[in-house]
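dumping this here so i dont lose it
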């Protein structure tokens, strides 16, 4: 197990280097002048030259990347051009908000996905199976943008049950209950597609086990329905773990739209604002944090998979 984890960690190093290099080059080569975007087209030449040198835009791209990477390894992600604050100082609270939203959405994915998948596997040709298939297909196919707007229109505008954005009411208590009310709609919008995919994968995995020799052998030994189902769920759990880990990573990277639409102050919203303002240090630092979190989650999922199924270790 130790050797397996070491191999995964060693593979993570070139992955992170490749991601940071590609993103750094892509952001740096995006058309537009970040200096003019921040100072305006009528800025004096002295101010433009000073900001150009401070951002390192007067040096070659490989030199700038090597310098940025060296500082990033020490925890220094630079200074945001738009806010004049350290990038790390902006990213840490935003990361906490993103993790909160991701955790809430992932909980919905696990609960809803396993319930729908089990319903379809237990009654594949009955009303429950047809309902499971219809709901999972609808969840995967429904445009996230339209669903999010529909949630806001119904539950915020018409019924006025839930707030449409932010994390706390201006004149609210600011406690966990207030946060939970603001968390419901963005979590549901973010969880929709991963929930449908999880349900379909778990339905296929559990249905295959229930129709296989393992289930027949357990029934022949006289085990009850609940015991057979418990053993079959255990054997189908690696598939659930794999798809769950992928969907967790998808949620972590894919909440940019949800955070922007629901005014959730996470990394996605911060990256959107940074791209709009051409704030290169903020964008590059934010992408690095997301990439590290993504790779770390994949390593944890691989470790859990190896713990459940020893064949994975080889």
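and the seq i came up w/
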């Amino acid at each position: 197990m130790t050797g397996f984890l070491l191999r995964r960690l060693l593979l993570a190093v070139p992955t992170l280097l490749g991601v940071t290099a590609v993103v750094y080059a892509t952001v740096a080569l995006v058309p537009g002048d970040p200096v003019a975007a921040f100072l305006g087209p009528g800025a004096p030449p002295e101010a433009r030259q000073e900001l150009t040198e401070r951002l390192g835009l007067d040096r070659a791209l490989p030199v700038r990347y090597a310098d940025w990477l060296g500082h990033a390894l020490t925890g220094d992600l630079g200074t945001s051009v738009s806010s004049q604050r350290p990038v790390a100082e902006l990213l840490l609270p935003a990361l906490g908000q993103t993790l909160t939203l991701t955790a809430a959405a992932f909980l919905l994915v696990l609960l809803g996905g396993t319930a729908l998948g089990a319903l379809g596997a237990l009654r594949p040709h009955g009303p429950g199976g047809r309902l499971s298939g219809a709901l999972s297909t609808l969840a995967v196919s429904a445009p996230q943008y339209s669903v999010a707007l529909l949630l806001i229109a119904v539950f915020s505008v018409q019924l006025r049950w839930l707030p449409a954005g932010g994390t706390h009411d201006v004149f609210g208590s600011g406690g966990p209950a207030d946060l939970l009310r603001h968390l419901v709609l963005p979590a549901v919008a973010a969880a929709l597609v991963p929930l449908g995919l999880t349900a379909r994968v778990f339905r296929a995995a559990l249905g295959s086990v229930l129709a296989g020799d393992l289930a027949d052998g357990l029934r022949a030994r006289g085990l009850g329905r609940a015991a057979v189902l418990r053993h079959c769920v255990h054997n189908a759990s690696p598939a659930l773990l794999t798809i769950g880990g992928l969907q967790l990573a998808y949620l972590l990277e894919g909440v940019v739209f949800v955070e922007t639409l629901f005014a959730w102050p996470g990394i996605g919203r911060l990256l959107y604002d940074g791209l709009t303002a051409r704030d290169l240090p903020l964008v590059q630092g934010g992408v690095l944090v997301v990439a590290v979190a993504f790779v770390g989650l994949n390593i944890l999922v691989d470790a859990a998979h190896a713990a459940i199924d020893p064949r994975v270790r080889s």
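Residues 134 and 196 are 10 Å apart (CA to CA).
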